[in-house]
Structures are given as structure tokens and as C-alpha cells.
Amino acid sequence: MAGLLRDRRDRERASLERALLVKDVDELLAILTARVEKTGKMVGGRKAAGVKPKECVAHIRQHCMDMVLEKAAAAPGAVPEEAAPLPADPAAAGPGFGMPENVWESLIDAWAMTPETVHAEREEERRQGALTAAAAAAALAVAAAAGSFERADAAEGAMATVKGDGEEEEEEEGRGFDDDEDDEELVATVNMGKKKPAGKAARKTSGKAGVKKGPPKKDLQTLVNESLTAWLRAVIALAQLTRAAPSTAGIGNWGILQAMNVLAEAAAAEENPSGMRVKGSVLMGRGSGVAIKVKATDDAAAAAKQWHQLRQAFDAPNSALLFHLTNHYALVFAMRSWTTPDGAVNREILTARKGQRPNTWLPFERVREIVLGWGGYKVMQIVDQEGQPEPAPEAAAAPLPDAAP
To answer: pLDDT band at residue 396, thresholds of 50, 70 and 90?
Structure first.
């Protein structure tokens, strides 16, 4: 898994370097690490002691703003230097032409920072901070008036949220890779072994023959922000995985599915002693790139259809279902459904909320709530490709009755 994360980090770093037109962005990490450590946290630290990608971007942005103001103070009234003119033949200027040596200057240019914009942004930060502090004080005052000091203290700085089923669950460290956009990427790279366009990434043919309309181009600031955040996610995830007390929080659905690809390739090359040519796909969840798409607007008929599709995948030969639920991954060990005498239909899956023993019958309604709660929560299907038949078309599949368990 560490190898997969290193590969991802390197890809994201190369993407950021292309966006910024620089040769190396690693020098950002030294300044970032120092700034983060001054706050009592660390890159890759555990839970409250760790730092999230957006916080890292904010630290880097603050450093850029400091540089802008320091440069303005050192040379008040200085006129910015004009950019060097492009040569008549850019290829003759060599491969490094036009690539800034200083990654910080490149970020400042990409973010269009000037002393005026920096002062305005910091003034807005102070205003927002004052509003936040006032709101927090008001909330504590209301809690104190109600006599709930203990509850107010517990709420302040808590990392857990209470879900609808009454279970207290900690916030996941590694949210980031497994969002809806990453699931679209998975469809194109690992899902079912077929490369298909998905969702927003799919190109649509316009009315004119031979002309294709792609997604709109991103402006430089958006491109840099996305590339920087993606690279920092990989940096943090790798630091979490390789620390003294490792955490697999950064290994989401993408890592599991790519690891299956590695196993399948090793089996094909006779390097895998087990010989299992496993293949994984995202089966059920919200967003695009899933076989069973769950939406908040689904009615009872749609939910029933989703149950039957899930049951068919569960019953498929040489197949297993892996559920990424809140803070956990666990197999789906069994499924059952029955109708009560008053006509109510009950549907449940047997899984595990903690550990890997089959110990929790989870209502299908709760399964739907979980996968709707975050784009990374999914049900994945794992199959052994040896002798695995092609799945039958959905139209040919007969519905399964809700029989007594």
C-alpha cells in the first residue's frame, strides 16, 4: 500500500509542477512542516494532532502572503519587473525556458497576490474570525443559561459526531481520496477492467458531426488549488501510513481496488502464490460510476430495486461484497428479507460495525443512509476472475421475492 501511495503522490506532484510551470515543489514541504509544527500539530499526525489538506493549503497561502508583504515593505513603490519576452523559437531556448525557479513566486503569480489583495484578504479573515468567536460565545452563553455546562464543554473541540442510529462515531482521518470525482476516475482505471467515460468527465457529442464538447477549462487558480490539495492529500496519507503507529486512513476504496489490480497482474505473471486473479468494482453508492446508484430522492420502488440488484451481486458465483461504512470496512456476510403479517417489508444485511466478525444485522434503510452520507461510503464487489462468467443483462434478471428468513 505504501508503494501505491508513493506512486499517487508522485503523480500528483508532477501534475502540480505542470500547473505551476516549476521543476520541483518539494521545497514547499519544509516551510509547511515548520509552520504546522508551530501550531502543535504535524503532517501525518494522529487525529487532533494531525493537519488536513485544506489547513496545509491555508499555511502555504499565508506564507505566500507574508512574502508579498515583506517584498513590498523592502522596496516601497517599486515597479514590478516585466516578464522576459518569448523567443522567436521557444524550442531553441531549451527545455527549462519559462519555468520559474522559485515555486513560491509561481504560487503568488497563480493566486494573483498583490499587497492590496493580501491586506483585503487578511482583513476579511479578521472579520470572519470575530464573527465566529461571537457565535461561539453566544452558543456557550445559551448552554450556560440552560444549565448544561458539561454538555457545552464536551461539545467544544469534540471530534465525534452522533449519527441517526445513536452510535457515536469518530471523524475519519483519511477523507479525501474517496469522493465522487475519484469514483469517476476509478471507473476509467480499475472498475470492471473496462475504460469508460463517467459523469462530468464524459465527453458529449454536439449537434455538429465530428465535434465533441468536453468539460469547460479550469482557470489557473482552480487548477493550482486542486493540484496542490491532491498532492498534499497523498503526502499526508503516506506520512500517516509510515509513522511509528501507522494509520490506513488514507487508503480508501481507490487503494483497495488498485491493490486487487496488482494481485491480478501478479497472478497473470505467475508471481502470486495464491493464483487468485481478483478484480474489484464499485457496486453501490451515490454519485456517478456505480452500478447501483443511490439517491436521496429514491422512492420505495427504487429502494426495492436496489435491494434486488444488491442481492443478485451477493448471490453471484465467486463473488464477495465489501462494505465501506462509517470508519470501517467489513464483508457482507448474509442478506435477508421478509414480510410481516401487516405487509411491512424488512430487509437487512449481516456485517460488522467493529472488527470482522458477522455480528450486526443492518437495515437496508440504514445502509442507504450511510452511502448517501459521504461519497466515499460504497459497497464494492470482489470477484475471482478464474472461470467467472460475464454478468447477465439487468433486464434478464428476475426479481427476488421478499421471503421469510
So the answer is: very low
Is residue 405 a contact partner of residue 338, using CB atoms and an 8 Å limit?
yes
Encoded amino acid at 51, one letter: V
For residue 308 the three cell numbers come to: 434486488
Q: Which residues pair with 322 in a beta bridge?
A: 331, 380
Sorting pLDDT into bands at 50, 70 and 90, what band is 284? very high
Return the C-alpha cell found at 134. Answer: 461571537
Nearest to 186 by CA among 277, 263, 287: 287
Q: What is the distance, to the nearest Å, from the Cα of residue 313 to the centroid of all Cα atoms in its chain?
A: 25
Q: What pLDDT, on a 0 to 100 scale, did the predictor assign at position 345?
A: 94
Residue 82 per-residue DSSP state = P
72's enclosing H/E stretch is: helix 53-74
β pairing state of 168-170 and 160-162: antiparallel
Distance CA 175, CA 47 (A): 12
> 19 and 231 in contact (C-beta within 8 Å)?
no
Burial class of residue 73 (count of CB atoms within 10 Å of its CB; 0-12, 13-18, 19+): exposed
3-state secondary structure of 319: strand
DSSP string, 336-365: EEEE-TTS-EEEEEEE-SSSSSS-EEEEHH
Cell numbers found for residue 186: 476509478
Gap between the Cα atoms of 98 and 355, Å rounded: 54
Q: Are 81 and 122 in contact (CB under 8 A)?
A: no
β-pairing, 278-285 vs 292-293, is parallel
d(C-alpha 254, C-alpha 376), whole Å: 10
CB 199 within 8 A of CB 191: no
Give the orientation angle of helix 27-38 with respect to helix 53-74, to 10 degrees. 100
Q: Does 211 score more than 90 pLDDT?
A: no
Residues 6+ apart with CB under 8 A from 295: 286, 302, 372
pTM above 0.70, yes or no: no
Indicate whether 125 pLDDT > 80. yes
Q: Which of 52-61, 163-172, 228-237 comes out lowest in average pLDDT?
A: 163-172
